[in-house]
Design a protein that fits this description.
Low-confidence stretches: none
Mean pLDDT: 95
Distance between the termini: 45 Å
Strand order of the largest sheet: 12-11-10-13-14-15-16-17
Largest sheet: 8 strands, mixed
Bound molecules: (S)-3-Hydroxyhexanoyl-CoA
Number of helices: 29
CATH class of the largest domain: Alpha Beta
CATH superfamily of the largest domain: 2-enoyl-CoA Hydratase, Chain A, domain 1
Helix content: 40-55%
Number of domains: 4
């Protein structure tokens, strides 16, 4: 049934203008496809209408099917009772007028039209693969007919958004305009109103001849990234069907391949992540629509690896940034490292030389705090010790203009202690970047006891402005990210003491979906950092659980890749980790010294011990109200620690196993291993009430 508020028809100068109005992004929610079909029928029946324009109200054309409706089982195939085929069969020309986004079902709708005209700022794409689906409304059949199978495969298997100019060059759109889309579309409609035959993508097979090796080559090219996933392969199979089957049969094959994905664990996880990432933007206590002043200038204290990377984030986002060091020598070293990082990108071809120069020129090295005074934000990024950090904040407090944000990049230290040395603790917060700061997308925004809601809002917005995914949390040792990850690291070394070897742990986690095993990641990051932290912790806490194997490696100068040896051995100029008999000997010797009889440990035990340990800790973090919601834990694990996206994140994955099963296993390990496995009260409560982790509320 037509829903006039969602879709309306107006006749302007002989052109029927169908407008979709389903904010915020005109998704094809129930009622929208039906509304388009009804308006189309009305326009076709009206002799005054010679051509039809389909346009979106508000900020976008159509951003695709309504992703929420998949979980409610409301997306039926073909979507909207075949409304795209009705557009396709229209005897009067239909022109899609595209601004904002034409994505997924939105682009598929436009491909059902005879012509497409777009604003230069518009983006088009078929991103279904990113949520574990394939374009199921004819996209895999029409796009290859329009632009050829090779270009179509690129768009469909990457899901990338194509700017209007590129879409024109590819042949997806017929005309690109600068402004005034509707008048331009109506003028276009007048120009083509009398042209016959109408261009109909479904009827044109002339571009379908594919290089016979194309599909196998594409399967091979995606194999590493698509590990454990089905959607990318079904996308290829659907395009292959377009090249081998008549249109109607190709559509039927597309539908079959789509149905295989719609209810898959992979697609459910990826759809969950889509919303989890958006939910993370909302920090409790900040009224919706609160405005945050834009950060227009920044300052970074410390030109080490982290400080330099943070400065690059601002420079990359066209925000001028000053970087401060205590000595000219350290400053020169820091600037040289930044330059070298940019030069690597230029060499790789991901950054043009002139753009690199523009970015580098936005970073000003300074030696004096007074030079930072006017910046909208100052971020401290020196080494992880409280007293020197407090000294930095005293200096910042003395010079920074009123209203400036004072942030610390600490990954674990107490924000309240840092804020306490200033006269303005309300503007102090944690801004924990992940290494390398200019590459990693996650920004953990930490609220101290005195941090104001306005400050939290401003820091979250600052993160978004520099292209980060900001996730808020409260203050505790290690905050949300590192605290929830710490038990994983501890369990890993205990598994080594009990009988596992580095190569087995890495194999299990890579098979699970991590891009790299956690032991090899340690070698990449450098083992000396953890060694220093362990020594500090052991000095402060007599009960601190020692990690004798890790310590022994460091005592031998095995700091990881940078010294050619760590948990693994490395050949000169090569980053491939090679299992090292010397390490096996050290591990076996430590086990013997600890009186442990080594045993064979199953892959499943390794996976579950590592991840369950962190699930339990994440529950404690939720219970304390440090994490605002379980999905924030997931977003942090996906973007901070390389957890496989198609498994949804730590807590979503745990839900697939079942709260009760996780709880009972943790109880068994509690009996066996003692206090480190004490189940969190929240976990017990969830298990007893049969509540999923994803529905767990912060304490
Ligand atoms: C599909 O089409 C299948 C077909 O083949 C047919 C099969 C039968 N559904 O991201 P933003 C919400 S699959 C529901 O913050 P931006 C979003 O949750 C679909 N909701 O803005 C947010 O809500 P809130 C293929 C959606 O400007 C609000 O809109 N299409 C949808 O940064 C604003 O979103 C896609 O995968 C949706 N489709 O980015 C496109 N889209 O304010 C998915 C958005 O409550 N969407 N929302 O948090 C996107 O990539 C981005 O949202 C977009 C805008 C680029 C459009």
């Amino acid at each position: 049934m037509s829903q006039p508020t969602l879709v309306s028809l107006a006749v302007q100068d002989g052109v029927g203008v169908i407008t979709v109005n389903n904010p915020p992004v005109n998704a094809l929610s129930a009622g929208v496809p039906e509304g388009i079909a009804t308006c189309l029928a009305t326009a076709l029946a009206d002799p005054a209408v010679q051509a039809i324009v389909l346009i979106g109200a508000g900020r976008s054309f159509i951003a695709g099917a309504d992703i929420r409706e998949f979980d409610k089982g409301r997306v039926t195939m073909p979507i909207g009772d075949g409304f795209i085929d009705k557009l396709d069969a229209s005897p009067k020309p239909v022109i899609a007028a595209i601004h904002g986004y034409a994505l997924g079902g939105g682009l598929e709708t436009a491909l059902g039209c005879n012509y497409r005209i777009a604003l230069r700022s518009a983006k088009l794409g078929l991103p279904e693969v990113l949520i574990g689906l394939l374009p199921g409304a004819g996209g895999t059949q029409r796009l290859p007919r329009l632009i050829g199978p090779k270009a179509a495969l690129d768009l469909i298997t990457t899901g990338r958004h194509v700017p209007a100019d590129e879409a024109k060059a590819l042949g997806i759109v017929d005309e690109v305009v600068e402004a005034d889309l509707l008048p331009a579309a109506i003028a276009f409609a007048h120009r083509v109103a009398a042209h016959r035959p109408l261009p109909q993508i479904s009827a044109n097979a002339s571009k379908l001849a594919a290089d016979p090796g194309l599909f196998d080559a594409t399967r091979k090219a995606i194999a590493r990234k698509a590990r454990n996933q089905k959607a990318p392969y079904n996308c290829i199979a659907a395009v292959e069907a377009a090249c081998t089957l008549p249109f109607a049969q190709g559509l039927a094959r597309e539908a079959e391949l789509f149905r295989e994905l719609e209810t898959s664990a992979e697609s459910r996880a990826l759809r969950y992540v889509f919303f989890a990432e958006r939910e993370a933007a909302h920090v409790p206590g900040i009224p919706p629509n609160t405005k945050a002043p834009a950060v227009q200038s920044a300052a970074v204290v410390g030109a080490g690896t982290m400080g330099g990377g943070i400065a690059m984030c601002f420079a990359d986002a066209a925000i001028p940034v000053k970087i401060l060091e205590a000595s000219q020598e350290a400053l020169d070293r820091g600037m040289a490292r930044i330059r070298a990082n940019y030069e690597t990108s230029v060499k790789r071809g991901s950054l043009a030389q002139d753009e690199m120069e523009r970015r580098f020129a936005r970073i000003t090295p300074v030696l004096d705090y007074a030079a930072l005074a006017d910046a909208d934000v100052a971020i401290e990024a020196i080494f992880e010790e409280m007293a020197p950090k407090q000294a930095v904040f005293r200096q910042l407090d003395a010079v920074m203009k009123p209203g400036a944000l004072l942030l610390s990049n600490t990954s674990a230290l107490n924000i309240d202690e840092i804020a306490s040395v200033t006269q303005r603790p309300d503007v102090v917060a944690g801004a924990h970047f992940f290494s390398p700061a200019n590459v990693m997308k996650l920004l953990e925004v930490v609220k101290g006891a005195a941090t104001s809601a306005a400050t939290m809002n401003a820091v979250m917005a600052m993160g978004r402005a520099i292209g980060k995914l900001s996730v808020g949390c409260g203050n505790c040792d290690g905050f949300l990210a590192n605290r929830s990850r710490a038990p994983f690291g501890m369990e890993m070394v205990i598994l080594l003491e009990e009988g596992a070897l580095p190569q087995q742990i890495d194999k299990v986690m890579v098979e699970f979906g991590y891009p790299m095993g956690p032991v090899a990641v340690g070698d990449l990051a450098g083992l000396d950092i953890g060694w220093a932290a362990r020594k500090r912790r052991a000095a402060a806490d007599p009960n601190y659980r020692k990690q004798p194997i890790s310590d022994r490696l460091c005592e031998l100068g095995r700091f990881g890749q940078k010294t050619g040896a760590g948990w693994y051995r490395y050949e000169k100029g090569d980053r491939t980790p090679h299992p090292d008999p010397e390490v096996t000997a050290i591990i076996e010797q430590v086990s013997a010294e600890m009186g442990i009889t080594r045993r064979a440990i199953s892959d499943e035990e390794i996976l579950h011990r590592l991840l369950f340990a962190s699930i339990n800790e994440a529950c404690k973090i939720l219970e304390e109200g440090i994490a605002y919601r379980a999905s924030d834990v997931d977003v942090m694990w996906l973007h901070g620690f390389g957890f496989p996206r198609y498994r949804g994140g730590l807590m979503f994955w745990a839900d697939q196993i079942g709260v009760k099963t996780v709880y009972e296993q943790i109880q068994r390990w509690h009996q066996l291993y003692g206090s480190r496995w004490a189940p969190s009260a929240l976990l017990r409560q969830l298990a007893e009430t049969g509540t999923a982790f994803k529905d767990a509320k912060a304490g």
